[in-house]
Design a protein that fits this description.
The protein is an alpha/beta fold and 210 residues long. 15% of the residues lie in helices and 36% in strands. It contains 3 helices and 13 strands, in the order E-E-H-E-E-H-E-H-E-E-E-E-E-E-E-E. The strands form 2 sheets. The protein has a 9-stranded mixed beta sheet. It has a 4-stranded antiparallel beta sheet with strand order 8-12-10-11, with no helix packed on it. Helix 1 links the parallel strand 2 and strand 3 (45-48). It is globular and about 55 Å long.
Length: 210
């Protein structure tokens, strides 16, 4: 399946950034273009109010959409809305974790926004991977020295099952005020996460980052 990559301006380890394949679509949200320059990757679109970009608008070798600085949508949400309007439903999001905390929280909300629009997004930063699961199933292969955590992003996820992990759950209630799903570990060849109701935030984090 082809993927829409959206690159934000927060720092991330570019050595973990995969080279887009033919048919993929690459959008830089404002200063995200600076991350691609050293990699020799040209985006298909740059969108933003250009408050964090190092280049002037006319120098981008691609389509450019300039936004007003005073607006309700973040640059990244504007990028997502544009991509959705062009038919994209699978998103890999980079440069959106570990910068400003308010923008990190906003980017987590974007995973929920994508679910509401019949799309799926994953935030990547190094070996950290963050996604969101509505009613459905996710499989995570075992990775050494990684934690796997789940949190309710809605008031409650009433029916959560975790298999193949050190601390399994079976039809458990996971609510937004008690972090029962934090710091689990995959002990089988793969972990299975099943969610039946609500939105479940799923985070895979390398242990050395804690």
């Amino acid at each position: 399946m082809s993927v829409c990559y959206i690159i934000g301006s927060a720092p991330f380890c570019t050595e973990w950034f995969p080279r887009p394949q033919q048919g993929d679509y690459v959008i830089c949200a404002d200063g995200g273009y600076d991350h691609l320059l050293p990699l020799g990757i040209s985006p298909d679109l740059v969108i933003g109010d250009f408050d964090s970009a190092s280049k002037i608008e006319d120098s981008y070798p691609c389509e450019v959409i300039r936004l007003l600085p005073e607006k309700d949508d973040t640059d990244t949400l504007s990028a997502i809305k544009t991509a959705l309007s062009r038919g994209w439903r699978e998103f890999s999001l980079y440069g959106m974790l570990g910068g400003r905390l308010d923008h990190t929280v906003a980017n987590l909300q974007l995973l929920s926004y994508l679910l509401d629009h019949q799309a799926q997004g994953t935030l990547f930063s190094g070996r950290t991977r963050v996604t969101m699961l509505g009613t459905g199933r996710l499989i995570f292969p075992k990775e050494e020295e990684c934690y796997l955590s789940v949190f309710s992003f809605t008031d409650v996820c009433p029916d959560v099952t975790l298999r193949g992990v050190k601390y399994p759950l079976k039809h458990a209630r996971v609510d937004s005020s008690y972090p029962i799903g934090v710091s689990n570990e995959i002990i089988s060849p793969q972990a299975e996460i099943l969610n039946n109701g609500g939105k479940l935030l799923v985070i895979q984090t390398p242990k050395e980052s804690l």
